[in-house]
Write a structure and sequence with these properties.
By secondary structure, the chain is of the alpha/beta class. The protein contains 13 helices and 14 strands. The structure holds 4'-deoxy-4'-aminopyridoxal-5'-phosphate.
């Protein structure tokens, strides 16, 4: 046995955390690091902790018995198709249904331009794989979705953040950044944006800005990747028109059934200009051969036989009640100097702490007080976000949300007292628990 192998075995036998393979990973593995949310998973899932951290949809609200019957019926009547390999592009009938779903956001598209993916997360992976060479620039809102940032970093992209305000990303900032990056001789491959009910900021790009952003990107030759898993979950109005509806050639649109049905099916999709769509199918086949026929047909069956529009409406009502509970509690309980966004849909509130406070340093104290959130730094690649945190209201019941905010407000009060006494709140320390488990992105 070589010394090296022996070393690996000894580590395994002792359950050591030392990585015997560290010298052998590809360079891109250096970008694969656990997100802040993953590190939180173990603590936040303890029952005594009110988790305002994860972005888990409230699937318990689904008619689970009906879904069970539908799945049983699917296997009994179409098992030979459902349990077989499928096409790399995805089931045709489902792609037609997806076009019907997208029509609610003004998108006119045919099934030939749709690729079904393993959640929209896989669509993000495939798009990045197709477009990014190490060092290429991806523009993304600051803050942006942690799962997308992880994918970009795994492909060694350089992420440049674009500033946002309460109306989404700021067109002037986009224009300036594009000029600066191009003047520095760097290649921008795409703008990644979540225009509607953004994760994590909860804000929505208004209609005027949508047109401006499309125009700026068209002029600069920058592809837009529009990630829209929350678009149908608006609380106060009908769905906004997707950016893709106004620029079929300049936008790749990503959609998902994770929030409007259930993430466990892992069914999402990409709608792309024709040539990109062809590359996506090839990339899809090299990644997984074909998506699960079983879950695609189950989703198709659900859409064909269940009142899915009504289900989305009831999700909207459920999440609206939780959003209201969170905003009302924040209004009453948070100390002066804290601010937060007021989302019109989706799952998240983005809160800003007073000057001198650091949300990550504050987290151990919060967990000790049995409340969890995600520190803002996880949503940036450049260390920004210290004074921010993401609070999600999608999963806990309204009473738990109120209790969570009450605990959180108490922690912020304590931090302010520390700051006023010592000039700073809690000092940064180790927060994470390195544990396996899904990112609650
Ligand atoms: N994009 C955004 C903005 C998300 O918030 C998420 C999940 N939280 C995803 C993509 C991935 O979702 P899925 O793979 O379940 O479709």
């Amino acid at each position: 046995m070589t010394k090296e192998l022996d070393h690996g075995r000894t580590n395994a036998a002792q359950g050591s955390r030392i990585d015997a393979y560290v010298d052998r990973y590809a360079a891109r593995a250096a970008g694969m690091v656990a997100s802040e949310i993953r590190a939180l998973f173990a603590v936040a899932s303890r029952p005594e902790v009110v988790s305002l951290a994860g972005g888990m949809p409230y699937v318990t609200a689904l008619p689970l018995d009906l879904v069970g019957e539908l799945v049983a019926d699917l296997v009994a009547t179409r098992g030979s198709v459902a349990l077989q390999y499928g096409s790399g592009q995805g089931d045709l009938a489902l792609r037609e249904q997806i076009c019907e779903v997208m029509r609610m956001e003004g998108i006119e598209a045919g099934p030939d331009d749709v690729v079904v993916t393993v959640g929209s997360q896989q669509a993000l992976d495939l798009i990045t794989r197709i477009f990014i060479d190490p060092g290429d620039v991806v523009l993304a809102e600051g803050p942006s979705y942690v799962g997308a940032l992880g994918t970009f970093s795994a492909y060694q992209a350089k992420v440049v953040h674009i500033a946002m305000d309460d109306h989404g990303l700021i067109p002037e900032s986009l224009e300036e950044t594009i000029s600066a990056v191009q003047a520095a001789g760097e290649r921008i491959k795409f703008l990644y944006t979540i225009p509607t009910f953004q994760n994590p900021a909860g804000v929505t790009l208004n209609e005027v800005r949508r047109r401006q952003v499309l125009e700026i990107c068209r002029r600069a030759g920058v592809l837009v990747v529009e990630d829209n898993p929350y678009g149908l979950l608006g609380f106060d109005r009908e769905p906004l028109r997707a950016m893709r509806a106004d620029d079929p050639e300049g936008v790749v649109y990503l959609g998902s059934f994770s929030k409007t049905l259930a993430p466990g099916f892992r069914v999402g999709w990409a709608l792309a200009p024709h040539a990109v769509r062809q590359k996506l199918v090839l990339a899809m086949e090299s990644a997984v051969l074909s998506h699960s026929s079983f879950t695609q047909l189950a989703v198709g069956q659900y859409l064909a036989t269940q009142p899915w529009r009504e289900q989305i409406k009831s999700f909207r009502e459920l999440y609206r009640e939780r959003r209201d509970a969170m905003l009302a509690a924040l209004d009453v309980l948070m100390p002066p100097g804290c601010t937060w966004t007021r989302p019109g849909g989706g799952f998240f509130v983005w809160a800003t702490l007073p000057e001198g406070l650091d949300s990550k340093a504050m987290l151990p104290r919060a967990v000790a007080e049995r409340v969890a959130f995600v520190p803002g730094t996880g949503f940036y690649t450049d260390g920004d976000g210290k004074r921010h945190m993401r609070l999600s209201y999608c999963y806990p019941e309204p009473d738990r949300i109120r209790e969570g905010v009450r605990r959180l407000a108490g922690v912020v009060e304590q931090e302010l007292q520390l700051r006023d006494t010592f000039g700073t709140g809690s000092m940064p320390g180790h927060v994470g628990v390195d544990t396996p488990g899904p990112d609650l992105a």
